[in-house]
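Structure (tokenized):
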């Protein structure tokens, strides 16, 4: 249509020049010339307007993670035209999709295609990966427990060590947990800055790359990123994870889970590099044993993170790692991969589509690590 208008403008301009030469001989041409003089700037203005590129509006949430508090997708700054969306990412949304009129709630996880149509002009198609709040809950269950007190001491787990153990003395006290044990969450910033989902959506994180710092995430406060439950089968949304303390019984197996989320909403442009993780399981016995999970990354701030879950029992016990139980769960190619047993008390490289250390930023790239341990009576 733009080409047709340009051809029309050129034709009117040429005709106007010709009519100017003969207007003295044909006075009636003056009216046509006036009409052409009025039409030319109008046509030129129309061409200029429709030739402007159609800007992409702001889409919320920018990180693609919907919550129970904010379950809908919405758009800001649609300056002109009509926006269409489609769950079929192989089609033109403005031809086969739904016209956006009010915020909508996706009914499934995955990429959604968007496109704006202004008159006969279309924008390019862009995509956003959305995860409804119910998807994560139905898949992994609920996590109980408020954020514990921040740990005051960083465990001795320097890069390159052969083993990394938490000092765990015998605990005769019935206190759960005892006051003199190091437990809780921490990082190399001695208490990193935290954010809400709304903060991330409004760009407060900027270009910073940080892990597990959102306080109203799918697991609640992400700083509470280590949790445990009894291994009695996978019950999906009925799984209940204890993020602070779990009462255990000798002879039972338990799953320890570590949640890893690069909070940057910028995808591969906000990727964290050389990301590693480990579980630290003490070898000692006691009535109270603290298991830690740790994350590190070369370009994240902070560069190291840890959190713990406290195992308690009326009788002395110790934890034994169950071989071949280390698992990574994600949307990427490595999802469902069994990891090396060395993840217990040693750093192991993580990844999304390969175990190459790169973790893009956004909820769709978040993942869970888990191991199984057995409670053995002493």
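Design, position by position:
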């Amino acid at each position: 249509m733009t080409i047709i208008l340009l051809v029309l403008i050129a034709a009117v301009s040429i005709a106007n020049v010709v009519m100017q030469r003969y207007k003295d001989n044909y006075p009636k041409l003056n009216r046509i010339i006036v009409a052409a003089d009025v039409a030319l700037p109008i046509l030129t203005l129309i061409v200029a307007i429709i030739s402007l590129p159609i800007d992409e509006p702001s889409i919320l949430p920018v990180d693609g993670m919907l919550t129970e508090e904010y379950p809908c997708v919405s758009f800001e700054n649609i300056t002109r035209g009509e926006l269409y969306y489609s769950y079929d990412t192989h089609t033109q949304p403005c031809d086969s999709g739904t016209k956006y009129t009010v915020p909508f709630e996706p009914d499934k996880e995955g990429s959604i295609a968007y496109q704006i149509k202004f008159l006969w002009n279309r924008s390019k198609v862009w995509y956003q990966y959305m995860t409804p709040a119910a998807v994560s809950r139905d898949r992994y269950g609920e996590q109980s427990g408020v954020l514990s007190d921040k740990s005051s001491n960083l465990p001795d787990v320097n890069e390159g060590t052969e083993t990394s153990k938490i000092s765990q003395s015998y605990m005769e006290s019935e206190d759960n947990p005892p006051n003199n044990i190091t437990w809780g969450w921490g990082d190399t910033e001695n208490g990193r800055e935290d954010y809400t989902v709304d903060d991330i959506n409004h760009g407060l994180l900027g270009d910073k790359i940080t892990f597990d710092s959102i306080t109203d995430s799918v697991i609640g406060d992400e700083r509470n990123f280590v949790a445990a439950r009894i291994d009695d089968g996978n019950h999906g949304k009925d799984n209940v994870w204890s993020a602070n303390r779990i009462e255990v019984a000798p002879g039972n197996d338990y799953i320890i889970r570590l949640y890893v989320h690069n909070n940057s909403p910028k995808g591969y442009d906000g990727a964290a590099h050389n990301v590693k993780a480990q579980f630290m399981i003490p070898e000692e016995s006691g009535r109270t044993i603290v298991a830690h999970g740790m994350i590190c990354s070369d370009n994240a701030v902070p560069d190291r993170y840890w959190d713990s879950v406290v195992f308690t029992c009326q009788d002395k016990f110790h934890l034994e790692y169950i071989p071949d139980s280390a698992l990574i769960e994600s949307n990427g190619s490595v999802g469902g991969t069994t990891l090396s047993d060395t993840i217990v008390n040693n750093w192991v490289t993580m990844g999304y589509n390969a175990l190459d250390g790169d973790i893009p930023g956004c909820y769709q790239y978040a993942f869970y690590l888990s191991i199984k341990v057995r409670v053995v009576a002493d």
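Reviewer-requested clarification: Residues 15 and 222 are 70 Å apart (CA to CA). The two ends are 82 Å apart (CA to CA).
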